[in-house]
Amino acid sequence: MTRRPTDLAVPIIGAAVGGATLILLPAQIPGASLADVSEMRSPAFFPIVAATAVILASVADATRVLAGGGAKDAEPWRWRRPLGLALAFALYLLLVPLLGMMTSAFLLMVVMSRVFGYPRAGRVLVVALATTALIYVLFERVLLVLFPHGLIF
Prior knowledge:
The chain has 153 residues and is mostly helical. Helices cover 67% and strands 0% of the residues.
């Protein structure tokens, strides 16, 4: 089986996003450091845990691909998905300060479903809305972790 360049695109982007999160953490959360992972009440705790989980998942996925577990279909390699993935995340980062994290996360899920060709728009909207609502309730209401708010939410 031959590997395609896109087989490693998601693990590489995931590891880069996780790594950038850890590197930029002190600039994003005043007074934060990686040592805050030992203090669950720190505003840096969840970003550190999430970024670490993304890095570990990316390494596991890259290992699977390099061991021969890449895509098995004969679809030719195209720039559409990796470029769409990069553009979706760039748009998300630009929209968070303007629209807020919850609205931007909802839009990111909808755009990502289109990038990966998911055909059921109604289901995508329901899942994206339910996911962002669950994240909001869990983090902002239960755990009292504040997310950036924008003009909409």
